[in-house]
Each structure stands twice: as structure tokens, then as C-alpha cells.
Write a structure and sequence with these properties.
The protein has eleven helices and 16 strands. The protein is of the alpha/beta class. It binds flavin-adenine dinucleotide and uridine-5'-diphosphate. The site of flavin-adenine dinucleotide has 34 residues, from α1 and α11.
Length: 370
Amino acid sequence: MYDHLIVGSGLFGAVFAHEMKEQGKFCLVLERRSHAGGNVYCEEKEGINIHRYGAHIFHTSYKDVWDYVNKFVEFNNYVNSPVANFHEELYNLPFNMNTFTKLWPELHTPVEVAARIEIERKAAGIGEPRNLEEQAISLIGRTVYEKLIKGYTEKQWGRPCKELPAFIIKRLPVRYTFDNNYFNDRYQGIPVGGYNKLIDALLEGIEVRLDTDYLKDKSNFDRLAKKIVYTGPIDEYFGYKLGRLEYRGLRFETERLEQENFQGVAVMNFTAREVPYTRIIEHKHFEFGRQPVTYITREYPANWQPGEEAYYPVNNDRNQELYKQYADLAAGERNVIFGGRLAEYKYYDMDDVIKSALERAERELGSQVI
Ligand code: FAD
Ligand code: UDP
């Protein structure tokens, strides 16, 4: 009899399993994919780690989480500095003095730039922003909105910016300094040798069964352990009996190129509406690779269909309300812990998932001690 049967080998499942093993608990991890690691999994080709489920950059301001991951793997000093490509014009991201002075070559100082943005903001006559378009224009002016935000965002979410919530854009920093670091967090990097090293280290000494879907044989699996930790989609757990939660899908097209360096940067965003993909990832640049070949991935946003890979939760009122109803059902399930981005239907970054798994594990161990 296992103490815990853990459904899913992504970061939540792997961290939780590791913490239990450290305290002498006996765990079994089930994973329905043919590899462990969930969405941080990378496929190695010719010495290049390909981020198979989308580019992943580790960044955090939690010192405890940073110290934790560094126990398992060393991190390189990669700093995410994407470049935006608007009809072949290139701009640094996030929005900073490098971006502004390229857009407006006649401006040179933060004061001049702020004055220009203020003129655009006033001309738009927006009061309290009611949607993403108004939020973006009042934050950064119409020029930046039209060239770098509108097309990208409408592709990404499949809806006009006027119909999207303002908060989506609040993730992006706006700086009046010459600083191309995409994140404001204190710590950042990519695991040396790739994310699989982190997952392998977390799962060392723990039994993992791949290609095994818990829900296909739930009652038999339930008999194997005292407690279940479920990190899959919450609506699937309950057989979609209240309806389906919606996601935004993605499609990846990866290509091998016989050249050393294709775009000179790991992430290039294509902000024009006419280009069907949102980004091209050149994977080798995450790890400063010097291989004679390169692999690139075009990322296409897609309408999600049930049964496809669930990437981004669509946090509108309908889905939030439905999620709450599922969460109520989950609270009534005895001996089942629901955690991670799919079971909590939450846009979690990696550090938040690790923090939440650590807290959940601590609570679990604490309650068992008492
Ligand atoms: P997952 O990684 O999804 O793991 C869940 C696992 O459970 C999966 O392997 C799944 O196969 C398995 N599973 C589900 N149901 C069953 C079942 N019935 N039986 C068996 N197994 C099952 N975060 C960052 O911090 N930085 C980034 O740059 C970043 N980029 C991202 C880019 C994209 C495109 C996406 C989608 C996310 C990104 N994230 C990023 C978020 C990051 O991927 C997540 O925070 C993290 O991977 C979530 O881990 P998890 O364990 O909750 O879920
Ligand atoms: N965004 C944009 N232009 C860009 C990059 C991002 O307009 O070049 C907007 C877009 O709406 C996106 C949001 O900012 O959904 C958040 O960007 P982030 O890079 O955080 O996206 P994610 O990590 O969710 O893919």
C-alpha cells in the first residue's frame, strides 16, 4: 500500500512526491504521457533542448523557491530579452527606453518619452480603462499599442482587444530605463542541461509509471494508496458532469535548420496580425549553444477543442463560475488533494506551482504528525 498515489509528473506532482519521499513516505506517480515532467519537458536533439510544450523561463522573487530548485540543478544566467518583429521592424521588449527611442528616434530622454506617451494618452480620452485596449493605450499610448500589442494579443486570445480583460496586459513591465530584461523578478535562469534534469532529480528513487492514465482505471488505482494527489484537469476528474472548462490552445511547428544562428535571440514575437504565429523560439539560445545547426519552433495560437492539450485557462466569468462549482465538489472528495495548474484551473508560473506544492506537502506532513 502506497501512502500517496500522485497523478501527473509535472512540477506539482514531482515536488510533492519528492517531499513525501524525503520524509520516508512511499509514493507512486502515474503519468499518461510517455515522459515525465509535464509541460516543462524538453526533447534533446543534437545537443539542443527543445521546449516541447512552449518556451519555459524560470523566474522568481521567492528566495526559498530559488534555493529549493538550486539544490537539484544549477541554473545558467539566461535573462529573457525577447525582440518584437512588426513587419520586419525590430524592437526590444519589454517596453523600455530601447523600444521607445527606436520607435521615436527624435526622442532621447525618459522625460521626452513620457511626455510623448502622455500626449497620446490624452488624445485617446480614456477614463477608467474598461478593457485591454483602453488599459494598454492609457499605459503606453497608441503607437506602442498599434505596433506591439494589438495584433499579438488578438492572435493570442482570438478576440478583439476591446473584448479582453485589462489584467492580461498588466503582466508586462513598462520601464523608462534602457533595460531589456522581460521580468522584474530577482532570480532568473534555465537549468544547466535542461528542465529534465530538474524533474529527474526530483523524482529520483520514486516509482513512476508512464503511459498510464489514472482515470481509465480509477477504482483499481484508488485501492493502491491511502491518498490521491490529482494534478490533471479538474473537470475531467468529475467526468465533465457540470460542463467543460475552456482553454486556449497552441500548435507548435518545429524545424531543423542547417545554420548556426537563425534569429540571434531565443524569443522573437511577431506582433503583426497578418503573421499567423505569435513567436519563433530558437531553443539553443536559452543555453548559449554553439552547435552548427539550430532548431526553431513557430508557435500558433489555436482554438482549443476538447481532447487537445490544454494550455492557457480562459479566465472569463463563465469559466471561473464553473471552476468554483468543481472546486466545491473537490472539497467534498475524501482523501484527494487537487493541485497544480489544471486541477486549480489557474495561470500558474513554475515558481508558484513549486511554492504551492511545497506548502501543500508541508500541510500534509504536519497534519499527519498531529
Ligand atoms: P503540468 O506540467 O501540466 O503537469 C500535469 C501532468 O499531469 C501532465 O504531465 C499530464 O500529462 C498529467 N496528467 C493529467 N491527467 C492525468 C491522468 N488522468 N493520468 C495520468 N497523468 C495525468 N511558467 C514559467 O514560470 N515560466 C515560463 O516561461 C512559462 N512558460 C509557459 C509557456 C506555456 C506555453 C505554458 C502553457 C505554460 C508556461 N508556464 C511558464 C507555466 C508552467 O508550464 C506551469 O506552471 C507548470 O508546468 C505547471 O506544472 P503542473 O504540474 O501544475 O502541470
Ligand atoms: N503581449 C503583447 N505583445 C508582446 C508580448 C505580449 O501584446 O509582444 C501581451 C499579450 O496580450 C500577452 C500578454 O502581453 O497575452 C502577456 O504576455 P506574456 O509574455 O506574459 O505572455 P505569456 O507568458 O502568457 O505567453
